[in-house]
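Consortium newsletter contribution from the modelling node. Members have asked for a concrete example of what our holo predictions look like. Here is one, prepared for the magnesium ion complex that several groups have been discussing at recent meetings.
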Amino acid sequence: MAFRTASVVALGFVVGPALWLIVGVIARAVPHWRWNVLTTVPLGNGGGLENALLGTLVIMAGVLVLAGTVGVLAGIHFAELARPKRNGRAGSSSLRVASEVLSGFPSIVLGYVGYVALCVGLHWGFSLLPALLILSLMVVPYIAKSTESALRQVPTSYREGADALGMATGYALRKVVIRSAMPGIVTGVLIALSIAGGETAPLLYTAGITNSLPSSALVHQPIAYLTYYVWTDYNQPSAQAHNLSYDAALILIVLVLILLVSARVIVYRTQRHSESRR
Amino acid sequence: MVDEVMRSTQRPEVIDATLAALDPDRDRPPSVMEVDSLTLRFGEKTILSDVSVAFPRGTVTALIGPTGSGKSTFLRTLNRMNDRVSGFRHDGDVTLDGVSVWAPHQDLLSVRRRVGMLFQRPNPFPMSIRDNVVAGVKAHGIAKGRQLDVVAETRLREVGLWDAVKDRLGESPFRLSGGQQQLLCLARALAVGPEMLLLDEPTSSLDPGSTESVENLMRQLTPALTLIVVTHNLGQARRVSQSTILFYDGRLIEHGATSELFDAPRDPRTQRYVNGLMG
Ligand SMILES: Nc1ncnc2c1ncn2[C@@H]1O[C@H](COP(=O)(O)OP(=O)(O)OP(=O)(O)O)[C@@H](O)[C@H]1O
Ligand SMILES: [Mg+2]
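And here is the predicted structure:
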């Protein structure tokens, strides 16, 4: 009974602030919501957030492709291929260290490093590519680590079953092992994506900001993102700017919710035949 | 009619000789697998000492012995499932049709395709029932497309599961009963066309009814296949096998015709074991 109460209280501590946050943003954003926020660019203190919405989507897509590929492959490498004959755990500890160091690293410092090395050093200026590289650097270890641990949790009996049928290791990995690790992998990638979508500091240093819509240019072209407006417009004196700040927050929350829902859908679709879902 | 013609024109020896000439296995060694003074270590620990035994084609051999005597380890060595265990070393040899399973030109994947395995706990893959049956077939490129449906149906019928699952081929295998899951794993193993099946306590997690269907199947699978079955169920060993091997502490203590080994054991340890006086 005491345990139950404690659990409920603990759950309250987790869910409470999240609900408070979501409800607070919705309550402040919805009353003045205009759909043209999505289709106009900022103008003075007003206008819309089309540039930032598209910019954030482009950044998330870029991180998905870049960090998703690198991170998942690295995770597979550490869980499956770097595993030596003698059941050791080579690599996994260095991965853990890398991931802990990088996640403990203030993101603004990474942003600054990106600014000095990429924007200035390589003369790329404020632009998409340095932003993607820095955000990916932040989340690749996270994705790799969650992929690795998801793969390690795949029951030995699946691998043995595949071995006993004479499946090649790579084939078994693709057809049996990864499939059963999919929820963990997908969840890791999506959390990484929402981290990337929610970052401000490293983007301030690498992406810059602009009122124009994203172009196809990878370098020499600043790109906008929602978190910039959440922050700056909140600190503006005008009510119009405040409203935009809440609109940006609302759009971000909706994006994250869409991510979470798609994660559930993917997990559901890949786990239709899983042992836990009977 | 045919019988009469046969009898009038041919004597039994001639028929035997004709049949023998038709036997696809006539040029192969009489034993599908031979184990020659196999000693196996995991690190410093010796698990199997000097085991020699031959498995005649088309027979069922039962492998019995107290827990920890090395039965599973022995079985897993035959299809090289132990190769990757840490500290694995072996002396002696295991040959499949006269060729060492560890020979450099021997293809590990084809050894495993030819020597199938069924585990103590049913281990279907997390995919649909149909995909489970054809998983190995696809991996080896034995069949594809519509042929896979035919393979799935044939194998499911072979193990007597077809009627129970024909309307739910796309569903999860984990909704099947334990016995049905084990039969599904058997269908999956049979689908790749093995010559041998290694069964490690295949019925120990099953109820008597399912156990009986698995045992019946084992009898039907010979002489097309050669089976080795590890079991703690002495009744099962008597029911399904022609010969029996007793392992004790990593050594092969006794090997003989099942009825002899049970009714007239030579070694006192065998005597105690088959009389239930030893775990
Ligand atoms: N991977 C391993 N590393 C080290 N020792 C092992 C390993 N696998 C098995 N052993 C040891 O080998 C011995 C034989 O084990 P094995 O599983 O073959 O016995 P078994 O006859 O199958 O027993 P049971 O009837 O309980 O299944 C045991 O002492 C066990 O501890
Ligand atoms: Mg065992």
